[in-house]
Amino acid sequence: MMKSRFTYMVALLSAVTITATACGSSGGSGTNNANMDNKTDGKAVQQTPDSQKPAELSFYLGSMSKLEFEEIYAPLIRDKFPNYKLTGVESSNRIPDLIATGNVPDIIISTKGGIPSMMQEYGLEQDLTELIKTTKFDLSRIEPAFLDTMKYYTNGKIIGIPINAASFALHYNKTLFDKFGVAYPKDGMTWDDTYEIAQKLTRNEGGVQYRGYSERWHQMFMEFNQFSLPYLDAKEDKAAVNTDQWKTLINGFVRFYKLPGLKFDSKSGYTEEDLKVFATGTSGMQIFAQPDQFKTFEWDIVSVPTFKEKPNGALWGSPRFFFITNTSKNKEAAMNVSAFITSDEAQLKLTKKGFAPPLAKISDEMKNSFHADSQFYKGKHVTSFFYNKPASEPPARTPGLLYYSKAQAIMIAEVQKMFTEGMEVDVNTALRNAEELINKGIAEQKASKK
Fold it and tell me: Disordered: where is this region (predicted)?
């Protein structure tokens, strides 16, 4: 039973990475040019001559379960570094308590949300520039968009190494497509193409309302949006939601909820309720996947559709990182492990488990081996996960600006009104209301700090 739950967790992670999205702090772009000479031409990352010296390393499991660490990552690392003693510290142990007792882990495993909430909040950031040089780590191997994800918060510094990436695909109900004689989706579709398909599938038959598309829409279209749009302005303490690009994005997905015959109230239109529809077999397509629940129909996957305004643009997500803490007494060993995890040797093994590589160049072997060990994606069109290029972070905000954490929730609530019976508003009204509420919240938060 434990293994089954773990397999599902891995499948869900590869379908969508749940992130602690933040809109504040400063950042930069591009890769670290000082380290571009340390190239390995796609080969396993070099280790220092002392990489087999005994060392003790502790890992704070901020975004990794104890089971995943013990069954996947620890054995992989121990095989490469048999003289390293590894300990996983579960996130139930609070960082302030670990600091107070002098037991801060050497590596904190977290998504980008852990940068402001852990690394910066408690002063644990370690600039890895020198370690990257001494270990000859080839930073150019890493997908630049994932480095930018980190630099967004760190004013351009490298404080961690991505170990796996967000990956997405459009799941479709083959049984429903066959029932209504509709051609299957294909890789490379636009959202306009997808809407045309959804129109053909959306119908009421035998008293059952079928839908062409359903989704955990707030995450797919707003949190992981393909235009990399922020909620807060990059240079001022104000909202950045009332824009033409946000209008294009919102109209692009809300139309799926306004097809003839569809009705939503405040509950059924709620994003978490809409998530459940695909598993019932009455919806044709969905990105956010729960494949262990697909019991009554045949299904497969294709690439996530893109907006014609941004072709080949994947969803904006978040990798997981190994963040090396400045309190670590074994920084070089921690860097050796971080470098090894990004090697082709390690990434191929992780890919088979369903962890998408954070690499700039992903080999065909990795693409074809994705989820090879998964009971859910066996025989599926798994290369679709890698069809599009990862979206970049929004523009970095000027240092010192306020981070207003309620901005996304406000936006979600206002957009939902666009297709909720009795509350219908147009996109201009929804975005204008969201803008006003966010600006009001920012003003109140600033006033409370005076």
Answer: 23-51
**CA angle at residue 232 from 230 to 233, to 5 degrees?**
100
- For residue 337 the two structure tokens come to 């492990």
The conformation of residue 261, written as its DSSP 8-state character, comes to T
116-122 long-range Cβ contacts below 8 angstroms, 24+ apart: 116/22, 116/24, 116/25, 116/153, 116/403, 117/20, 117/22, 118/62, 118/323, 119/159, 119/160, 119/323, 119/325, 120/25, 120/153, 121/95, 122/95, 122/96
Report CA-CA distances (Å) from 228 to 241, 371, 382.
Answer: 12, 27, 25
Structure letter (DSSP) for residue 35: G
Tokens 């193409």 correspond to what residue? 193
Q: How far is CA 352 from CA 242, 256, 368, in A?
A: 42, 34, 9
Burial annotation 112-147 (CB, 10 A radius, 16+ → b, else e): bbbbbebbeebebbbebeebbeebbbbbbbbbbbbb
Same domain, 128 and 269: no
Q: Tokens for 128?
A: 């890895």
Domain that holds residue 19: 2-167+317-386
Could you tell me which residues are beta bridge partners of residue 240? none
Rounded to 5°, the CA angle 377-19-240 comes to 125
Which candidate, 347, 377, 356, 394, places its Cα nearest to that of 16?
356
Q: Is 203 helix (H, G, I), strand (E, B) or coil?
A: strand
d(CA 298, CA 309): 32
**Dist CA 80 CA 338 (whole Å):** 12
What pLDDT is attached to residue 153? Answer: 84
Give the model confidence (pLDDT) of 300-329 as tens digits.
999 999 999 988 788 877 799 999 999 999
pLDDT-derived band at 395, boundaries 50, 70, 90: confident
- The C-alpha atoms of residue 198 and residue 208 are separated, in whole angstroms, by 16
Phi/psi of residue 153, nearest 5 degrees: -100, -15
> Half-sphere exposure of 320 toward its Cβ, with a 13 Å CA cutoff?
25
Helix, strand or coil, per DSSP, at residue 98:
helix
Same domain, yes or no, for 91 and 160?
yes
d(CA 108, CA 87): 12
- E strands of 111-219, at which residues? 160-164, 170-173, 203-205, 208-210
Q: Supply the CATH number for residue 163's domain.
A: 3.40.190.10
Do residue 118 and residue 64 come from a single domain? yes
Q: Are residues 422 and 280 in the same domain?
A: yes
**DSSP-assigned beta bridge partners for residue 389:** 313
How large is the average pLDDT for residues 3-18? 42
Number of compact structural domains in the chain: 2
